[in-house]
Specification:
This is Type-4 uracil-DNA glycosylase. Keywords: 4Fe-4S, DNA damage, DNA repair, Hydrolase, Iron, Iron-sulfur, Metal-binding. By secondary structure, the protein is of the alpha/beta class. The protein is built from nine helices and eight strands. It has a single domain, classed as Uracil-DNA Glycosylase, subunit E, CATH 3.40.470. Helix content is 43%, strand content 16%. The protein has a six-stranded mixed beta sheet, with helices on both faces. The protein has a two-stranded antiparallel sheet with strand order 4-5. Strand 7 and strand 8 form a beta hairpin. It is globular. The structure holds uracil (URA). The site of uracil (URA) has 13 residues, from helix 4.
Amino acid sequence: PLVTDLDIPRITALPAVALAARTCRICPMARRATQTVFGEGRSDARMMFVGEQPGDREDIAGRPFVGPAGQLFDRALLDAGIERDDAYVTNTVKHFKFRPRGTRRIHEKAGPEEIAACAPWLAAERRIIRPHVLVMLGATAASALLGRHVTIGRERSRAITLEDGTTGVVTVHPSFLLRVPDEDARTREYARFVSDLRLAADLRT
Ligand code: URA
C-alpha cells in the first residue's frame, strides 16, 4: 500500500521512515525521479543539516549531497572540524525535480506545493533525531523550517530558536558558493560558510 501523510507521524524508527519514503507518491515529482533521496546519518546525531532538494547526481546515487555542491559541503565540514558521519544530512524535498530536454534533465526549483507535500518527512526526521542544532542551508530550508519568508543575509550566523525549542543556524546553500563568479569573493564567502558551520558545531553540546 502507498504511504499517505497520515501514516508518517506513526512511524517511530528512522530506517522504517526511510523505507516508507521510498514508495511515497504524495506529490507528482515522485513519478519522474529515479528514486527518493532520503536523509542519511545517525539517528542520535546532534547536528542535522537541511538542504533544498536532490540534484541530478543525488537522484542517481540515491544519497543527499554527493554532487558538486555536496563535495564543497564535505570540504567545508572538514574545515569546520565536523565529521559528516556524526551528523544527519537531509533535504527539504526528497525528490529531484526536473524538466527533460532531449537527453538532459534540467533542474527545476521545487515550489510551495512540493515543499508542503514533503514536510511530513522532514518533520518525522526531526521528531526522531531531535538534533541539538539544526543547520538550514539556504532560503528554501530556512523558510520551510521557520515557517516564514527568510532572507539569508539578515538571519545567518547566529543562533535562532525554532518553535519547538531546537536551536537553529541559517547559512547559505553550498551551491550558492559555486555560483559566486569572483574568486576573492568566493574565498570570502566560503570562509563565512565555514565560520557558520563552526558556530553550529559549538552550539551542538
Ligand atoms: N543540493 C541540495 O540542496 N541537496 C542535495 O542533496 C544536493 C544539492
